[in-house]
Specification:
heterodimer, A: mainly alpha, extended, B: alpha/beta, seven-stranded mixed sheet, six-stranded parallel sheet, 12 helices, 27% helix, globular
Chain lengths: 191, 382
């Protein structure tokens, strides 16, 4: 009873739970759990044999948080910054700390620019972006897209309707703008 | 080599990429035999994580065989069958020396607020991930472990994140015997957190979600009492009624950035990206736990701010505990639990998808089609 000092009773005793659930209570002692205490000195358990790691060669100026004293000794080398999105990313890292919303908003904006730069670049290759295959949307027909949603009390179904607009909307807009631009150019030439 | 490649929000494909190279004497190259898509990969896939670059290969849950080692590697050799924790970490910085492997300070130049994670944007270090035929594994003497001969591949791959994270989440709840534990989210991490709560002596485990197939799994796999929040006007009030109006002793957020249940939160976070995540589940945790209780956050959020009900947390005197899981710290105990038959992680796997069909895999998992709970990615090497 919450409004008195008594705790509301639990329906099942520990003995009953131990009998019913495999492993119940195997980690009962809170002090004998792997992440207790949080800061626990790791005696030679890491496998490391260095005090400070050797430095990985920096093959291009690696962007880094200004909250770091120096470039970390090891880092990922996927996707070096390039184009306008790369310039935005480098500026964001150079100018703003992780504590500033501007840092993250600029990086998010760069992500959107990167996507469009990459889509446009793909049209100059033998494998242009294909929103049908790359979204995997055909699995809607092979993996029960309709029956997975209808009559299932899913809270997310209402905003699933917005997803195609978000995904296809910019493509439709871009196609419309391109069509309009081509018409204008042709009209200008005819004059 | 063949690798999954991000092409922009909601778009991925498989491409021919250069083989990863040894870039540091401590590196290894691992030939991936089995990988998985994690619920947190969907935050990248949906374009929510800042500095997710087109061309990156995702995947932080993978196992494989050592193909090549750098000149400084002592503990692994070519041909070893290894499981690789999702954390990239050095083992000797201030944080690693104290067991906070997920907070390593020597592997992520892009941010100090998060450690290194394979295939998880440049915000987490800019490392390509394991949804590919090969992957670079830094500090190979520290992170990877040779998979015990008795362990199944599917159990091993789930130990690299989902199981370890769920188990860690239950630990952060500081559960004591007889506690009422509520877990928001019946995805892989939530299922494992619920199951782990029993190991720590919970007296009652309640799981809340809106996907019936996942709630069914929570009942059968995690022996939990379940509720579909769409059936109640207010799930917090229902939770109070279930607990004699005290609230749960421990609440675990196993949902994170893309929680459903509040359209405004969803639109401002998932669609407009104006929040680091939709904190619906986190706010339910704060309101659903009893005064003086503990909230454990396992769900992943982006680095931006989120509309969290911090005043309620303060006024209720809550303890909020959270972190990315330091995976390898959990392994010895979890190996014991699997061997003793207390845990069978692969029971939650629903889909096994060839790498070449990964775009369908992402869509199925993202749109929750076909009863999908946990999709694995199978490479030709597997």
């Amino acid at each position: 009873m919450t409004y008195t000092s008594e705790r509301p009773p639990i329906a099942e005793s520990s003995e009953s739970l131990r009998a019913r659930i495999p492993g119940w209570g195997a980690d009962l002692d809170p002090k004998d759990r792997p992440s207790v205490p949080k800061l626990q000195w790791q005696d030679d358990e890491s496998g490391a044999h260095w005090e400070f790691p050797e430095r990985q060669p920096e093959k291009w100026p690696r962007e880094r948080s200004i909250e770091h004293e120096f470039l970390t000794p090891v880092f990922g080398t996927s996707c070096p910054p390039k184009g306008l999105s790369g310039a935005m990313r480098k500026f964001s890292y150079r100018k703003y700390s992780e504590g500033r919303a501007a840092h993250w908003l600029l990086l998010l904006a760069a992500d959107r620019v990167d996507a469009w730069e990459s889509h446009l670049r793909s049209f100059a290759t033998l494998r242009p972006d294909n929103p049908v295959t790359e979204t995997g949307v055909l699995s809607e027909f092979t993996r029960h897209g309709f029956s997975s949603r209808v009559g299932k009390k899913r809270a997310d179904v209402k905003h699933h309707l917005a997803d195609p607009i978000i995904i296809a909307g910019p493509w439709v807009l871009a196609a419309g703008l391109a069509y309009s631009a081509v018409r204008k150019v042709l009209g200008w030439r005819r004059r | 080599m063949r690798a999954m490649v991000y092409r922009g929000p909601y778009k991925v494909r498989v491409e021919e990429k250069d083989m990863p190279a040894i870039e540091h004497p401590g590196d290894a190259i691992v030939r991936v035999t089995l990988a998985a898509i994690c619920g947190s990969d969907l935050h990248l896939y949906h374009g929510m994580m800042p500095d997710t670059r087109v061309g990156m290969t995702f995947g932080h849950e993978f196992i494989g065989v050592v193909e090549e080692v750098g000149s400084g590697v002592r503990n692994l050799k070519r041909g070893d069958r290894v499981m690789v924790p999702f954390n990239v970490y050095c083992g000797t910085c201030w944080f690693c020396a104290r067991g906070l492997y997920s907070n390593c300070h020597n592997v992520n130049p892009n941010a100090t607020a998060v450690g290194g994670i394979y295939g998880y944007s440049h915000t987490c270090g800019g490392y390509d991930g394991g949804q590919a035929e090969f992957v670079r594994v830094p500090f190979a003497d520290v992170g990877p472990t040779v998979i015990p001969g008795w362990m199944d591949d599917e159990d091993a791959v789930l130990l690299t994140d989902a199981l370890a994270t769920g188990y860690f989440g239950a630990q952060l709840g500081d559960i004591v015997e007889g506690d009422v534990v509520v877990v928001f989210g019946a995805g892989p991490v939530g299922l494992f957190a619920a199951k782990s709560a029993w190991l720590m002596g919970a007296g009652r485990v309640i799981v809340i979600d809106h996907l019936e197939n996942r709630l069914e799994k929570a009942r059968t796999f995690a022996h939990a009492e379940t509720y579909n929040f769409t059936e109640y006007d207010d799930i917090v009030v229902h939770l109070k009624k279930l607990t004699g109006h005290l609230g749960a002793d421990v609440a675990i957020d196993a949902v994170g950035a893309e929680a459903d249940g509040n359209l405004t939160q969803h639109i401002t976070s998932s669609k407009l990206k104006l929040q680091g995540g939709s904190p619906v589940a986190l706010n339910w945790c704060i309101d659903g736990v009893r005064k003086g209780g503990t909230v454990s956050v396992m769900g992943a959020y982006g680095p931006m701010f989120s509309a969290v009900k911090f005043g309620d947390a303060m006024n209720k005197g809550l303890t909020l505990r959270m972190n990315q899981c330091p995976v390898k710290r959990q392994w010895p105990r979890l190996f014991e639990h699997i061997r003793n038959g207390y845990l069978k992680p692969s029971d939650i796997v629903t889909h096994r998808i060839p790498l070449e069909h990964i775009a369908e895999g992402y869509h199925i998992f993202s749109a929750k089609l076909d009863g999908c709970i946990k999709p694995l990615i199978v490479t030709d090497a597997g």
